[in-house]
Amino acid sequence: MSRLPFYLLVGALMIAGIALSVHRHVQFEVPWTPGEQRQVWEIEAQVNLTAQGGPVMVDMALPSHQQGYRVLTENTASPGYGLSFLEDERGRRAQWSIRQAAGSQQLYYSVQLLVAPDARPPESRRPALQEDIVWERPYDTAATQVIERAWQRSASPFTFARELIRDFSDDRQGENSRLLLNQFDRASLLVRLLNDAGVHARAVSGLMLEDGRRRQSLSTWVQVFDDDRWSLFNPVTGEQGRPDNLLMWEDSGQAVLEVQGGTNSNISFSMIQHNQPAAAAVRNQLANDTLINFSIHSLPLEEQALFQTILLIPIGALVVVLLRVLIGIKTSGTFMPVLIALAFIQTTLMTGLIGFLLIVAVGLVIRSYLSRLNLLLVARVSAVIITVIAIISLFSVLSYRFGLNAGLTITFFPMIILSWTIERMSILWEEEGPKEVLIQGGGSLLTAVLAYLAMNNPWVRHITFNFLGVQMILMSLILLLGNYTGYRLLELRRFKPVTED
């Protein structure tokens, strides 16, 4: 029978697991190793206004995912106000409303932003040109001369914008430039001149991020388009390009803050930068699962903690398969060592080993007495279960009385599995002798210890919990190992006399 379908299945599982894991690392920046730190900016916007005693509505622009930054969490503080988050052609905005308010009002909005160098900006639509731009005298003549002068020294929309801004700088500022600046705001004037020359542009607002700064305000930048490409220009210096520490707060050319029913409105910003574990930094975006971004993080924390242990079981199963199929270690029960290893994780290794040996030793002594009673199998195993429970209870009480609190964790041992282990070892002792009991018991204990060391590794725990594609990789490896039909390592001892001859 052809093995091709089998190898295709194994290959598909391996490729799918690797692809899902790499996608999760690249797209959502989930780290490969535990303990990695991520830089996070926490920014608070404070809106102040004076309400006039009637209805008040406050509309404020909000930042979104952009180049270099990704929004993690958002919070607001606005007692008595209704709040809605809106998203339309103007971008993301917060809208507060209240039926009646008077006097000084403060509204707060805070956001956590993850520094993500690989994050890409959302698609920015080119704004329409302003139509019917009319300049009053004598500003029309000045605007025409400024545009013509910059146009002659440029070859593209970007170079034209750069030359135009430089004409308004202190060292190159002429009479026409000074006349226009006395009448118009610099950023809006530049956008108007660019539009008049047929160049698509708009004024956008950004926040320069500096650690520990308070009461900061937004700065205005000019966004210039050249077909599908765009670039930012500093309206004062003419420098082209987006600074690394610039956060675009409003990028659609709209007002940052609009207030109805209030006066003297203003907005100020405070910011602080700190580092936090990468897993915590990306947890919010991991909770928003899709078909590809499937993770445990969308579950409640209690279930997450449960699955953090459950997802380690395939690692223990892989260790058992390796030791039994390739090395040939005998164990008492196929996957009993995995369950014992899980108990070791709860009890710590040394406490678990001592507790396991004590329970099994005492259980074997009691089981030897039960064998003389010639009981039926079901009754005998039930008696062993009750005996194991009694032994665990006794050891827990004694350890507590002697102040050995670590002994209390012995209750994490799987009682049914321990009972069947004692039953199997007792039968093995009667049929094969104590040597075989030591071989299988020692093999089970060695396998459990190795499985514990693999499962309790911080890197393994991190990978299995954050990358579910690893489960497919483990499945493919186990299937490959299950296809092995050669000699086991311990079986090669039979050929030792041949090598000596």
TrEMBL record:
Q: Where are the transmembrane segments?
A: 305-327, 339-366, 372-395, 402-422, 437-455, 467-487
What is this protein's name? UUP1 family membrane protein
Entry keywords, A to Z: Membrane, Transmembrane, Transmembrane helix
Q: Which InterPro entries match?
A: 7TM_transglut, Transglut_i_TM
Q: Where is the Inactive transglutaminase fused to 7 transmembrane helices domain?
A: 23-182
Please report the stretch or stretches of sequence annotated as the 7 transmembrane helices usually fused to an inactive transglutaminase domain: 255-498
Quote any Pfam family the record assigns: Transglut_i_TM
